[in-house]
Amino acid sequence: MTASSSLRALQGSLKSSLLLPTTAFPSRRPPSAAAALLKKTTIELYNRQRSRPPTPAFTLHDGPPYANGELHMGHALNKILKDLVNRTEILSGNRVSYVPGWDCHGLPIELKALQNAKLKASQLSPLETRKLARDLATKTIEDQKAGFREWGVMGEWDNPYKTMDKSYEVRQLEVFKEMLKKGLIYRRFKPVYWSPSSGTALAEAELEYNENHLSKATFIKFPIVDAEWEGLSAVIWTTTPWTIPANKAIAVGKDMLYSVIESANHGKLLVANERLAYLEATGVLGDWSTIREDIPGSDLIGYHYTHPLLPETSPHPIFTADFVTADSGTGLVHMAPGHGMDDYLVCLKHDIQPFSPVNAYGKYTDELPIPSLHDLDAPTAGGAAVLELLEATNSVLHVNPKYKHKYPYDWRTKKPIMIRATAQWFADVSQIKAPAIESLEEVKFTPDVGRHRLSAFVKARSEWCISRQRVWGVPIPALYHKDTDDALLTEESVSYIINKISELGTDAWFDPSIPTTTFVPPSQADTANDWIRKSDTMDVWFDSGTSWKSLPSTPADLYLEGSDQARGWFQSSLLTSLSATSSAPFKHVLTHGFVLDKHGKKMSKSLGNVVAPSTFPSPETLRFWVAAADFSKDISLSPQAVATATESLRKARNTIRFLLGILSDFSPADTNAVEYDRLKKIDRIALHQLHHVATQVRTAYLSYSFGRAATMIAAYTSANLSAFYLDVIKDRVYSSAANSPERRAAQTVAWEIYKHYTNMLTPIVPMLVEEARQHAIESGLKLTDVETMEWMIPQAQWENGSLAQEWDMIRTLHDAVKRGFESLKKRGEVKVSLECQVEVVPLAGVRLGSVLEKWRDELEEAWIVSGVSVGEGVEAKEEDSEVAEEVKVEDEATGVNAMVVVRKARGKKCPRCWVYKAAMEGEVCGRCAKVLETLGV
Fold it and tell me: Which of 621, 784, 778, 771 is nearest to 39 (CA)?
C-alpha cells in the first residue's frame, strides 16, 4: 500500500468514526408529500380536536368573503390570521368551531354573471338572471375554497354557510320578522343614496368619497313675488344644478343677517351680509350698492318666490333651517327634498313632499313638466341643459365649470351617486343605537381603537336603508296593493311568506308562474287578488349581518376582519343582533389593516401593483409572512418581505433537520437522557434560553400577538440556536464517544429544544412540524400528537437567573475573543476560530474571577477555540500573533475587569475533530485517541 493510499484509508477511518448528523428528513419537501401532510394538519387535526369535550369551547365566526373574484392578499391575511387564532386555541386545550362562510348575493355578482354571459338584465327574466348569478357564486366558492385549503386553513369546509342557501335565507327572514315585531322596519318615500350606474339604492357603507370630483358650481337667482320686494331675487349657490327642477323651497339662517343690494349686472339681489365680499370678488355683480342691510333671517320667513324654470307653478316658500351657514355659497340654500337628506327632513316639517323626477338610471322622467329635459342624463347632459334654460331666463349669475370638491361614489362601479327619493324599506337604527353602543363596553377589541371606530359609525347612523332594486338576493317579504301601493307587512303576513319560502325557496318569489295569491295570508283571503309582489331584495349587509343566526349559540368568541368592517359587517351584525336578541353577537372583535404595495399604496389592477398570494414560493412562506406582519395597521408587501418569509422558512427547516440529525441515535425513553443536575452549564444555559422563549412566545400567541411570536422565534433560531448552542455542541456531538455523558447531555437538551421549537412553530407552519414529527417517529424518537394539540410547558428548573448572569459575563468576554480572532484573521494568521487560544486574566477582587473558575472547563466549547487559560498572568503589551484587550464585564469602579488575549493556537490540527490540540502534525488529539481506542481504530 502506498503512502497516499494509507493516508486516504486513515482519513476514511477517522471520518467514519465521527458521529455526523444522520436523518432522512429532506432539506426540501418532495411535492408528492404535500397532499398527505395538508390533510393530516387540516382535516384530521380539526376532526380530532372536535372530539374533545364540549367545554372549554372556542368559536371564531367567519366573516363571509364575497363570492365574485379571485383570491388576493387581503384574503390571505384574513384567513391565515384566523387559522393562527384557531391553532392557538387548540394548543390551549379548547374545542374550536370554525365554519367558513360566503356572501353570495348582490349587485357585483349579478353584474359579473351578466357580463360573463354577455347579456343585459333586460334580455333575461329574473329567474334566468338569478340562475346565472347562483352558478357564478357556486363556482367562485369552490375556487376560493380550494385556495383557502391550500394555505393550510382548517375548518368545516364540507359544511360552510352560504347566504344563498335556503336554510340561511329563512333564518335571515326570521331576523327581519323579529325586527318588524319590535317596530324597527318601515317603508317611506324619501331620499336615499342611489347609484345610477348600478340602478339601486345604496347603504352608506357602500360609498367611497372622491376628493377630486368636479362640478359646475352655480349662482342662480329666484324672483321673490311679495309686493314689498318687487324686482328682488334670492340668490342661491349649488354644485348640483341638475336638481334645480326639483326645487321646492329656499332656506335661510334664522340668526344670520341679510342684505338687499342693487347690482348693475343682475338687479336687486338678496344675499347674506357675510357672503357679499365673496360675490364681489367673483366680479359677477359689477357695480353695486346696498339698498338695505342687516335683515334678520327670521324676518324673511313667509316670503315666497317663483321657480325660474316653472313660473306657472305655485310660489315656493322661504323658511329657516339650522344647517344654513355663511361658510360658503350665499347664505340662502336651494331646497330639493327629493334630492337631499337634510332638505327632506326640513321640508317635511313644512308639509312639503319630496319631488324626484329622475329614474333608476339617473335620467329625467316625464314627471317633470319640461319636455326638453326628458330622458337626458340628469347629472351630465341634463344638468347642462338646465343651465342653458336658466341662462335663457337671465337667472344665472356665475358658473365655475370645474369646482373641485369631495363627492360620494359607488364603491363598486367607481361612479358618482345621486341622492334620489324613492319608496324604500328602512331599519330604525335610532331606537337601538344607544343600547348597541352600550353593549360594546362588554366587548374586547384588538386593537382597542376598533371600539371607538365601531361606536362612532353606529352613533352617526339613524336609519338603515335595507332594500335594493335587484333580483339576486333575499326578497323583502312585503305585498303591495295594486291600486294604492300600500304595503302589507305584518307579523302574520311575514310568517306566512317565510313558511312558503321554506317550502318553495326564494326563487318562487320571482317566478311569474307562481301567483301572488300563494303568498297572501289567510286573513287577506277576501282581497287575495288585490295584492302584487315586487322584486326588491335586502341589502347584502343585512344578509351577512344576520350570519350570527347560523351559530349554534351566541355570542361568538371572536369576530376577525379588516378595519373597514366597522362600517360594514361588524356594524350590520351588531345592529341585527341587538334588534333581534338585545345583545351583541361577539365577545371579542379583532381588526386588521390592509395589504399595500411596497410603496404603501393600495393594490389595484389599474395601477398594476397587485401582488398575488401565488407570488410566495409556497403556502408556508405565505403563512410566515402573515404571522410576522403587524396586522394592527396597514402592511406594505415588498419583494424583501417575500424574501424574508422564504428565509425564515428555510432556517426553520434547516434547524429542525439538524436537530433530527444529531438525535438519530438518541432514545429519550431509555438511559440516554441526562438529568438536569448532571448537565453542563452550557446545556443549562440553553435550557434557560428555551424556557424564556417558549414562555414568551406562548404568551404572545395567547394575546394574538403573532408578529411578536414570529419575531421571537426568528431571533431565537438565529441567536440562540444557530449562533450559539447548535454551533458549540457540534464538536461534542460529532467527536465524543457515542455514549459519553457529555454527548448524551447535548442530545438531551437538543431533544427538549426540538419538542419546544416545533411546538412554537405549530400555529405558523403546521405542515413542516407534522412532516418533522413523522420523520422523528420513523427514526425511533418517541412522539405523540400532544406536541401539535397542546402547549409544551418548559420545566420550572430550567429558569436559572444566576447562571444567566454568569453567562452574560462569559458572552461579554466572548465578544472580545471574537474581535481578537477577526484581527488575527485580517493579518492572515488564522482562518477559523479553532486556530486560536485565549488567555483571560481577571483583576483581583472582582466577581469575574470566581465565575471564570466555575466556567473554566467549558470556555473552550463556549467560544469554539482550542484552548483557554485563566489567571496565569499576562503582559499588557501585545506580542506577535497576539491581540490583547481590556474588557469591562460588570459595574466596577475600575472600569476594567479583565485582560483578554487571543493568540494563534500552539497545538497542531487534529485530523479527526479539527481542534488544534494535537502534539504533532498528522496525529489525533488526546480525546480523539481515546475514542478511537474504544472503537478499535
Answer: 771
